Amino acid sequence: MPTLLVKNSVCLVTMDDRQRDVAGGGLFIRDGFIEQVGPTGELPQTADEVLDLSGHLLLPGLVNTHHHFYQTLTRAVPAVQDANLFNWLKTLYPIWARLTPADIFISTQTALAELALSGCTTASDHLYLFPNGSRLDDEIAAAKETGLRIHASRGSMSLGESQGGLPPDSVVDTEAKILADSQRLIETYHDPHPGAFVQIVLAPCSPFSVTGELMKQSAALARQYGVHLHTHLAETEDEEQFCLQKFGYRPVPYMQSVDWLGQDVWFAHAVYVSNEEVKAFAGHGCGVAHCPTSNMRLASGIAPVKEYLAAGVKVGLGVDGSASNDGSHMLAEARQAMLVARAKEGLTGFSLSNDPSRKLMTAREALRLATRGGADVLGRTDIGSLEPGKCADFFALDLNRLDYAGALHDPVAAALFCQPGRADYTVVGGKFVVRESRLVTLDERKLVEQHNKAAKRLLNGLPVA
Ligand SMILES: [Zn+2]
Fold this sequence. Notes:
By secondary structure, this protein is of the alpha/beta class. The protein has 14 helices and 19 strands. It binds zinc ion.
């Protein structure tokens, strides 16, 4: 039962229900879980390992609720730098059709390395194409080496172009194959216990790439095993038009028609929703993965986060796939969420309003979305805050960095308002993944070299070496 004592932080942010911050706080960790939280003087004085965080801010590990790790291979692709969602997808599908198992492996490690260096300790990924023998197993094996927790979503596409869907027929699968593989993955990997490092999620890709029948069958299978459901929804206006024309419903009522409103479901984006649909999410307990950078990058729009939170909808943050961000920095995503929420207020007359009830999203609210919000969305009660009994997942920022100079009146707000860089320490389940801003579990230089080689081959359409 190894122990870790973390001590002397400038401030420990618990993110507990009382939103307590502990000056001079620390943690006593045993066997991957937090045993004690409090001022350093009240903690045991020795442990198998001691981390002195003098001069550092100590925060709960960030939780990323939406990503496509493989897209780190297709960032900033010239042909789609300025495209909208549907054109972006149609151009990228044929490139992604060349992905191999080795590409899935290397891109998973790249994305998780970036996430870890940005303070993230748990990430959900959505892998929805499996060309050339690729499997979700490739991602899970790669993630295991990094030391982060993952919610690996078994994505799928079954509605090809010939049936009125968006993706080419070459990247869609039969429903029988998708469901059999989903069941195999749940039975092989899903861990429902506290402290789980791998959970499986069933995630048909979107209304425009999957049949209603597969949506229904996936929901039934997920509920049989108690795993969560995830998909893209209401991301853009052309998706809304597609749903109206193809199914006769707006996206949210369409989801209701295929048994997809429930507390075991979370949707990525959910930008185009009516007030009634916000209420429906709240009433059914659905979660939302808010992906502000991606929504700005593809000019999709701005999700109504304020309305979601007011209605009691669970909201987490997602960096989204790296072809539409084009990065995996979770703390930067929290900052982006705070800033775009403010931009939205500006668009509706904030500067002219003297209404004191109109509030801007605060730094702490943005941080809460990135921690507790994400944990709620993923259905985890063992992560997202620093409290006794929870997983020992945290990160620390050196406040003496140039980035924070002049902002130490409020170190917690500084983490969000100032330009985020690398986390100094990231620890998952009591184990170091980042130490002094360097990856512990991976060789960064080698990873970048292999990744760039794979990206070049993928873009140029060369055969696998
Ligand atoms: Zn996505």
